[in-house]
Amino acid sequence: MIDHDRLFKELLTTFFWEFIEFFLPEVAVYLERDSISFIDKEVFTDVTAGERYETDLLVKARFQEKESFFLVHLEHQAQHQETFPQRMFRYFSRLYEKYNLPVYPIALFSYNTPKDLESNIHQIEFQEQSCFDFQL
């Protein structure tokens, strides 16, 4: 059986700079190409649901002409998941807490159905008022 997830991660790792340059040129202008380093998987456990999650790709890079760094978290999603924006927010907050660096989240969707736009926002509301908005 072919491990498509592993192959996709290898492809993104090999061509990470080219991916950023082509699809996210607004990020490429901030990223110092020679500073790119890949961080081993981060594992997060949802204690309440008993589920274990691993980040797909985590990159640490330096801002152009600065001494500060940021993270790029890239998550590949091969099937629709209603709670995906919430999961991305959890990754974002845990990565920020652990590394104390800005995190740029990227989600790649590669499934055929449904052919609807995915939500890119996780919103927390209280009494019909937005208290917090997280955008992928």
Could you characterize what this model shows?
- The protein is of the alpha+beta class.
- It has one domain (4-135).
- Helices cover 29% and strands 34% of the residues.
- The strands form 3 sheets. A 4-stranded mixed sheet has the order 1-4-5-6, sandwiched between helices. Strands 2-3 form a two-stranded antiparallel ribbon. A two-stranded antiparallel ribbon has the order 7-8.
- The longest helix has 16 residues, at 84-99.
- The protein is globular.
- The mean pLDDT is 84.
- This is Rpn family recombination-promoting nuclease/putative transposase.
- InterPro entries: Transposase_31 (IPR006842).
- Residues 3-100 form the Transposase (putative) YhgA-like domain.
Keywords:
136 residues, four-stranded mixed sheet, two-stranded antiparallel ribbon, alpha+beta
Fold topology:
Blueprint: H1 4-14, H2 16-23, H3 25-28, E1 37-39, E2 43-46, E3 51-54, E4 57-62, E5 69-77, H4 84-99, E6 103-109, E7 121-126, E8 129-135
Parallel strand pairs: 5-6
Antiparallel strand pairs: 1-4, 2-3, 4-5, 7-8
User: What is the helix content?
Assistant: 25-40%
Describe the global form. globular
| Gyration radius, in Å | 16 Å
By secondary-structure content and strand pairing, the structural class works out as alpha+beta
Reading the helices and strands in chain order gives HHHEEEEEHEEE
Q: If strands are numbered along the chain, what order do they take across the biggest sheet?
A: 1-4-5-6
Strand content: 25-35%
Unreliable spans: none
Mean pLDDT: 84
Organism: Plectonema radiosum NIES-515
Domain Transposase (putative) YhgA-like: 3-100
Pfam family, one: Transposase_31
Protein name: Rpn family recombination-promoting nuclease/putative transposase
